[in-house]
Amino acid sequence: MMYLAGIDIGTSAAKTAVYDLYGNIAAECTKEYPLYQPRNGWAEQDPADWWNAVCYTLQKVTAEINASEIAGVGFSGQMHGLVMLDEKDRVIRPAILWCDGRTAEECDEINALAGIDRLLQITAAPALTGFTASKIRWVQKHEPENYAKCRRILLPKDYIRFKLSGEYFTDVSDASGTQLFDIRQRRWSEELCSKLQIDPSLLVPAKESPEAAGRVSKEAARRTGLKEGTILAAGAGDNAAAAVGTGVIRDGQAFTTIGTSGVVFAHTKAPAFDSLGRIHTFCSAVPGEYHTMGVTQAAGLSVQWFRNNFAPEKSYAELDLEAEKLPVGSEGLIYLPYLMGERTPHLDPHSRGVFFGLSAMHKAAHLYRAVLEGVAYSLLDAYEIVSATGPQIDKMYMCGGGAKSRMWRDMIADVFGTETTDMSHGGGAALGAALLGGAAGGAYADLFQACGQAVKCGAVSKPDQNRHERYHSYAKLYKKLYQSLKEDFKMLSKLQREDGSAF
Length: 503
Description:
This protein is of the alpha+beta class and about 500 residues long. The protein is globular. The termini are far apart.
């Protein structure tokens, strides 16, 4: 029997899954770790927590199979996170994550130094708080002693591959999200490094996602149960890996994923650009090709926040059952899911979550349903822009933890007005990572063979026209609310800075 292993470094947990060549799960294990918010709007993690979780999950899955039969290991990971290593490969400071919003001033500086038009030409985006370049600049300014010690900059999944192999690499999809990568040339931009005074020697080589990028070391084999010498793929950023895991590797194919963040993602052979920078175009996990995507910062995070704080005794399934009894629009309650600022379409780190229309008649179930609907409206913003700038979307798949909710899948279909296909139980980032590992290890000729053989579709949700029209009435008001509150968000942020409670 030949196996493939996929390691996904998420924001809330590490997941390791082992599959056969046909995409059937042989073993899987997930281990959670904490997210630290030392100040309002900050988000950090300890890379040691990722590594410990990966060791734990690998030990569990390799105990269930013959590890010598793993042809390759692939990686998926939360994008943009800044991991800094010193000359002895020690982590210098906690990793600053994708959802950290402290770098608004640094983004303004980057836009001024590089020029927004030039940034759009090279990276397809203006400077954003989520991207890695602004985090590096923040450390340069606020922690110069840490920057002076830095000898390597890695992204989260690449730190795990380094721990497994002792070798430094990234891949082109993850590198695209640093804002230091020329996506057309598929290489680091010397121009941007020079303008931002970032030493290019800190950046590691970028490979195509299915390429081999090291082998398991003797020490890592001892810690994890993997066989020494097992091939490791370059891997991909979480959404690029999820695209492989859902079979979205050709023009016209797209998926919506609901994890901690929410993403609408479409594959394209050629780069697609939005002149306003509201969506991102990155190098795809398919060599030589691209993808375009819109992101809402707090999708599953909004649901997790609500449950943890207001209904910890209930499961998500129980909350769904209660919310299903309510009508479209949650009886006049609208939620803006800006708990961590927002990317698509607003590019606004100051925006914050809002319940609008709250009255004495509303109960917890109303708030929960409003959260689901608010995330769906935010994803609709992304869907409309992605559809307008890229290839025509003819298939929409769904994956991620939130897609396990039948109610939420049906809601997305109704809000988009588009048929969706569930991939949440058999597809997604972990499978995509494993298929990249299989391609690197020679189990498949290419990703097209891998996806054709291993990716399987699930249940289909068809939109209801009446609900679609009703949702769009609420979505129009949802869009208007941000415009009405935009300046108020800035004022609130200013007040918090004056109080010393914000970044």
